[in-house]
Fold Peptidase.
Amino acid sequence: MTYCVGLKLNAGFVLLSDTRTNAGLDNIATYRKMFLFQEPGERVVAIMTAGSLSVTQTTLARLDEAVNDDMADETTSVMKAPTMLQVASIIGHTLSNTRREIVGQMRDFNQQASASMIVAGQRKGGDMRMFLIYPEGNFIEATDDTPYLQIGEHKYGKPILDRVVTPATSLADAQKAVLLSMDSTLRSNLSVGMPLDLTIIEKDACTVTAQRRILEGDPDFMEMSAAWSAALRESFVKVTI
């Protein structure tokens, strides 16, 4: 399993993903879940994935192939689509077709394969938009009422997002929010694991503003986690009923 979270704020996007795909007593694997397509200053598209690795890897490979195809046009390439809505449609169509093909190949083995994606981006002169794409290829969009989207093991990290994140949240505070959301998930679910990939995309930059890979034992992450735990314990003691 995995956990990915994206915030769409007035100031830009904050995106965070883990890298664990298979979890068990003797079977833990690490794969990147965040993928970036960009032409700096013109367009940036970020994709985070959760679910069947065969589905997500094949989908990303096909999207990448289309980007590099000399014959690609606005209906097939996420780097040529005229709007972010069209980008989401291309990704949804590719995901849906890939999933159907793989499920068909696995039918004789009575197995299923499913995947979902978060897509965030902006083209020059366009609005920032972020979508959650379902396995069937349909999608929903982040709004001012719900300025964040999650995929994977999302329930453990949702409460803090509900309490602190609004469209007006600063990028600095948003980074704390997604990292604490991930910290809560890491503590409660073994199917989510480090390293973590953090990406910041400022509004109208149309390029990745900052990237960071957070490894196991990262001192800043450990300090933040410890401070949050201490603050929760202190607040718990002060609460009366």
User: Anything to note?
Assistant: Residues 3-236 form a domain with the Glutamine Phosphoribosylpyrophosphate, subunit 1, domain 1 fold (CATH 3.60.20.10). The chain has one domain: 3-236. The longest strand covers residues 43-51. The first helix runs from residue 53 to 67.
